Amino acid sequence: MRPGDRIFSGVAKGSGILIVVIIAAIGAFLLAQAIPSLVANKANFLFSRQFIAGDPDNLSFGVLDLLLVTVYSSIVALIIAMPIALGIALFLTQYAPRRLARPFAYVIDLLAAVPSIIYGLWGAAVLAPALDPVTGWLNSVFGWFFPFSTGNVDRGIGQTIFTASIVLAVMVLPIITAISREVFDRTPPMQIEGALALGATRWEVVRTTVLPFGKAGYISASMLGLGRALGETIAVMIILAQAAGVPFGWSLFDGGDTIASMIARAAAEFNDPRSAGAYIAAGLVLFLLTFIVNAVARSFIVGKKEYE
């Protein structure tokens, strides 16, 4: 092996090991900071719906509602974003003229460059009022179904999980679209040309070759988008109205807090290690949840020779 190859190999291996060490150090730090507060906690950490950490001598906190709101809003965002991202990726790789596909892809990618605080302000000031007629109709017609039942905050202000999920969907759209686009673009040309030679229409080519080839990559991209949605902080904090002690009831018109938004909202309580430890414990749950989602995303493409 030539010296340049050895140097490059060493740098690559070192970078990989460094990332693993940093992630392990973050996990160890969170655990070390959280343990004293967890020991002093008077509530069940996993199943309690209240989170009282302002008084260090009387800690009583649990993450059940926070975890449910985090996962619920992220999954709704993913349900909205996945079909849109799939349509955009297929359009850019299979239907759009090359001279149009590239600038259109840049526009989609630019969505990832918009600061989350801008998304939050747009969601609270523009999107929430605009959605009022839609949410009112959904609540009056489908209110018997729990996702559209009356929530624990005033639906008229629009600062609900429904609004937050739409904003999250816009925020994860570039991730899912970009990865799906790259995967679909790597469909072997021989398979596409073979299907066309047999008389298949463009849609039949997409259905029989592009989608089967890119399915694992598309699912993996969606899982990475889910990880992005789970950890979003500022936009969700601006949009969601606090529920004033009313528990989460599985309605899209509920308010509340995700784990990340609650930690950001309570930054003033970090002056005491025990109070800060309670929030770090909640952050540890989010860390593990994101780690699991990313591991699942990785598992979809492991062993797929076409992606190696």
From TrEMBL:
A Pfam family matched by this chain, by name? BPD_transp_1
Q: Name one GO biological process term.
A: phosphate ion transport
Record InterPro entries? MetI-like, MetI-like_sf, Phosphate_PstC, Phosphate_Transport_Permease
Keywords, A to Z, come to: Cell membrane, Membrane, Phosphate transport, Transmembrane, Transmembrane helix, Transport
Q: What would you give as a GO molecular function for this chain, any one?
A: phosphate transmembrane transporter activity
- Which coarse location class applies to the principal site listed for this UniProt protein? membrane
Q: Per the UniProt record, which residue ranges are transmembrane? A: 12-35, 66-92, 104-128, 157-180, 233-253, 276-297
The record, for Gene3D superfamilies, names: MetI-like
Q: How does it sit in the membrane?
A: Multi-pass membrane protein
Subcellular localization: Cell membrane
Any one cellular component term from GO for this entry? plasma membrane
Family annotation (PROSITE patterns)? ABC_TM1
ABC transmembrane type-1 domain boundaries:
67-297
Q: What does this protein do?
A: Part of the binding-protein-dependent transport system for phosphate; probably responsible for the translocation of the substrate across the membrane.
The text of the family note is: Belongs to the binding-protein-dependent transport system permease family. CysTW subfamily.
User: Which NCBIfam families did the record assign?
Assistant: phosphate_pstC
What is the designated name of this protein? Answer: Phosphate transport system permease protein
* Species annotation: Kibdelosporangium phytohabitans
